[in-house]
Amino acid sequence: MAGERCALALVGQRQIRGIHIFHPRHQEEWMTDTKHQRLAARLHTALPGLDDGAILRCFDLTLWFGSRYASAYELPGPIYLVLDNSLIQAFKHRQTNAKRAVDALAFKTFCTFVRDWSDRESHLALSPMAIFEHAGRRPPASVAEVEHTLAELQQLLDSTGLRIASLGFETPAHLFERLQAIVADEVFLTRFVDEIDKADWRIDLRAPMGVKIPMSEAWRALPEQLPLRYFDPWYVRFVLSARIEQHIIEQCQGHGPTPIGSGRLSETLADLNTFGRNGLLKGLGDIDLLQICDISRQYQQKLGYVLAGQTLDRDLAETLSQRHAYHVHAGVEGGDPQREERIKEMVGLMFSKPFADEEARGRRIREQLADFAGQLAQSCKQASASNAKTAATGEPQGH
Asked: Hey, which end of the chain has fewer CB within 10 Å, N or C?
């Protein structure tokens, strides 16, 4: 791929290391007028032609993306907006599908907020799995085909105005290897999940002291080692244990003690993977986004940057939200030679505000989001009023 076309920057697990950064073609247009004027001008061009339902959907979806960005902003460092295939498909089919056109417009409008209202360095990010799904889950025949796919994605996402970073690969040749690893994992997991679904999960939930917990039984049923080349084994087990738990609950109903489920997150995870008409397992992209964008793990690891999942799938977004939690702990172990110091630390933690920095960052960006929402609402109202005038007079209004 020619140098200026290789619009990639690597985001590693422990560090960020640039390769090439893609500068969108129209960046100079953003340097004039105020941010409110720029947003109003874009929407003045983009909203005409949409009915009131589409305008409302664009408004709601834009602010939904914005609220999720505000949650990611609570952690420090550059923010990488990791795209799933649903968003890529919205841009790919926006010329032929009205609903996807509105979805793409909402995300582009959200990107305007990111560029003009946020003071945090922010980029889009593409994982190998998202690229694999964009290519129709078909393994590439050559590195040249990978280069063509990357160039296509760069062109599709150019209108967002954000730079694009690669996630988990450094070069097209490295990406080719990662895609081959995904193919191998897909074959294994398709067979493995099929075996899980066909297994008999009726077990005796009675225990000497109460009842057995289905999730514990599900976790024990999975092998500790899975022959995976791309996916994180822990997250695969996390998702598949939820699937097994649901099988146990369904098959043990009415046979002995009432099964106790582990909650909504498990129910959502259990539905992530389904089989398509071609017999292949669907939902691997959801596992990919979960393993990359788990905020709980990022908070513990203190990576210095934030990987925030971007999706149109509400169930997947809810799963990511339930993994957006901060945990701190302190305790005392028996025999600890620094027992007194540990007790002081524990008491101090009880009366401290361990998440004060996160809360302060959250307040700051939500103030900006409220300001952005005001301009967005005004533009949407103007477009709706124009629709009303058109309906009354039968003549399109000037824009």
From this structure: C
